[in-house]
Write a structure and sequence with these properties.
595 residues; 6-stranded mixed β-sheet; 4-stranded antiparallel β-sheet; 20 helices
Length: 595
């Protein structure tokens, strides 16, 4: 347990170091800010000394020692005190401005790194992590760092300089009073370390639970309809309340311990303040120290105690930053997709010929899903992939698109191994229509044009007509300028699928992939779409995943997959003549209709 705790502490400290390292490009601003902070502290520490001079001069004047020098000393002390406070404010403003600039630039860079990381992570990462936890890392955790980084740095720097400068100043006034005033500091530091350790543990748990609760909300909000139909609202609510209670408990303990740190330290240092006042009074009576210097010393001690309190109380914020930055850097350190080759190969002429040469793949090293797949697809052929759930249909598509890389063998496109091609160029070859539609917040025209950004309005409308989406689009307010909400929730599921089909039709990609592309449309519309897609797929190589076998009877090749292997392959008529697995599946779908 202690080894795990030590490893976590090392990782947290490394995260803080990496976070500060992000500010290296703006180190000039940071250095200048540090210099200005020192000047601010120096000016601020001179003000009590000038006030002490004025008080001593006033004491002489009240003692009937009214001379020109005393009056000048009194006025000069007041002027210098005001000037010191004014300069301190100016330096503080400039230091904060520079540190804020450097901190925000560092956080901006961090957001950019996270954004680029999202595009470089393998699909496996998204399959094994909840979207809510990912979202919490890239938004909530980064916002936590952004909100506290530069403020914390400024406070820590000021506190350190203040402690150093004031310690020197107090020693120069009186060593005995300094020793008395600082005697309680070790006690304060001991209490602070004990409280901070417990606080860090709860804050780490709070950040983790925040990610978990975001994932829980995202998961069940996305399936709200299913939860309602199954009558599981009470169960889901109870689950949320349980996680919410855990988050509340961690947040309450963490914030309480962080907040209690300041009053504990303040009350401890007040004891030293009291002892200094007592010893100072005795020294003043004995004539060893003037009233003005005692007043200046007590003010210095107050500032010193406040700086120590500030430095220790900010540990709660530092702990939050450590926890948040650790989660962000854990995300940034995740294993990425294999690097694209440089400069990368590409077919001299794109025809759409594909070859699966002894392909082997498994999501886990100890479990192979596709064992030895060998298929050659000629340009312009339509290949249908059918089989029971979990047989490897979608996995095969993921391998074609290089969402995953094969573990053995090769997938070649016009003679070029897909692993020798840059992913971006590879995916330009394909156009996809998935069962799960994806549309973004924008006009219908913009969403269809997403398939080919240089398409004209006329080409977009033509694609919509081919997909039989034009009719329903023109019934919407604004027609093609109708704005879709996030997730296109303001149109029907079948209409969303028509738009994605229109988007694919607009693309000029030589290879098409259709994954249950008509699963959410009615039978009559499906027939019309099949006719349009047949026209669209002329001259294009296409892969069709289908559960409705009636939609792939005209395929040039039908592959029946089971447990990752091709069990049967041929045309519809050939497979029906074999009277094997495909024929059995086909007859089962049309048994009721035949009767």
């Amino acid at each position: 347990m202690s080894e795990i705790k030590t490893a976590n502490e090392v990782q947290s400290n490394r995260s803080v170091s990496r976070l500060l390292g992000l500010m290296r490009p703006w180190r000039g601003r940071v250095i200048l800010s540090v210099v200005l902070s020192f000047l601010q502290v120096a000016c601020f520490s001179l003000a009590p000394l000038y006030m002490g001079w004025s008080i001593d001069a006033m004491g002489k004047i009240l003692g009937h020692d009214v001379t020109g020098d005393r009056a000048i000393s009194f006025v000069t002390g007041l002027i210098l005190m005001c000037a010191a406070y004014l300069l301190s404010s100016v330096f503080s403003y400039l230091a904060s401005l520079l540190m804020t600039s450097a901190g925000e630039n560092a956080v901006k860079k961090l957001r950019g790194d996270v954004s680029r990381k999202l595009s470089r992570l393998p699909l496996n990462y998204y399959d094994t992590h909840s979207y809510g936890d990912i979202l919490s890392r890239v938004t909530n955790d980064i916002n936590t760092v952004s909100a506290s980084l530069q403020q914390t740095l400024t406070q820590v720097i000021n506190a350190v300089f203040t402690v150093i400068v004031l310690l020197y100043t107090m020693l120069s006034i009186n060593g005995i009073l300094t020793a008395v005033g600082l005697a309680v500091i070790p006690v304060a530091l001991f209490l602070a370390s004990r409280i901070a350790g417990k606080s860090q543990k709860e804050i780490d748990r709070q950040q983790q639970l925040t990610g978990e609760i975001n994932g829980y909300v995202e998961e069940y909000y996305a399936g709200h309809n299913v939860v309602t139909v199954c009558g599981r609202e009470a169960t889901v609510t109870a689950g949320f309340e349980e996680k919410n209670e855990e988050l509340y408990d961690a947040g309450r303990k963490g914030m309480f311990l962080a907040d209690v740190l300041s009053p504990v330290i303040q009350n401890t240092t007040n004891l030293g303040y009291t002892l200094v006042c007592l010893c100072g009074a005795l020294m003043a009576i004995a004539g060893g120290l003037s009233i003005g210097m005692i007043q200046a010393f007590t003010q210095y001690l107050t500032q010193f105690s406040s700086s120590v309190t500030q430095a220790l109380s900010v540990t709660g914020i530092i702990q939050t930053i450590r926890a948040a930055s650790t989660r962000v850097f854990e995300f940034l350190d995740e294993e990425e997709e294999t690097q694209d080759p440089e400069p990368g190969a590409f077919p001299a002429e794109l025809k759409g010929r594909m070859e699966f040469d002894h392909v082997r793949f498994g999501y886990q090293p100890h479990r192979t899903l596709i064992h030895d797949l060998c298929v050659k697809v000629n340009p312009g052929e339509k290949t249908a992939i059918v089989g029971p759930t979990g047989c490897g249909k979608t996995t095969l598509i993921n391998l074609i698109m290089r969402f995953y890389d094969v573990k053995g063998g090769a997938i070649r496109i016009d003679g070029v191994d897909s692993r020798d091609m840059k992913r971006e160029r590879l995916r330009e070859i394909f156009s996809m229509v998935l069962q799960d539609t994806w549309l973004y917040n924008g006009t219908i025209m913009e969403n269809i044009r997403y398939g080919r950004l240089d398409a004209t309005d006329e080409e977009v409308i033509r694609a919509a007509e081919q997909a039989h989406a034009d009719a329903f689009i023109r019934t919407l307010p604004g027609g093609y300028q109708f704005v879709l909400q996030e997730g296109a929730g303001n149109i029907a599921q079948g209409q969303r699928q028509l738009l994605t089909i229109a988007r694919a039709m607009l693309s000029k990609a030589p290879i098409m992939i259709l994954d249950e592309a008509t699963s959410s449309v009615d039978t009559r519309t499906e027939v019309l779409i099949q006719q349009a897609m047949a026209e669209m797929m002329k001259g294009r190589t296409s892969f069709v995943i289908a559960h409705r076998l009636s939609t792939i009877r005209d395929a040039d090749r039908i592959m029946y997959m089971q447990d990752g292997d091709i069990m049967e392959m041929g045309t519809h008529d050939e497979l029906m003549a074999q009277n094997g697995l495909y024929a059995s599946l086909y007859r089962s779908q049309f048994a009721d209709r035949a009767e």
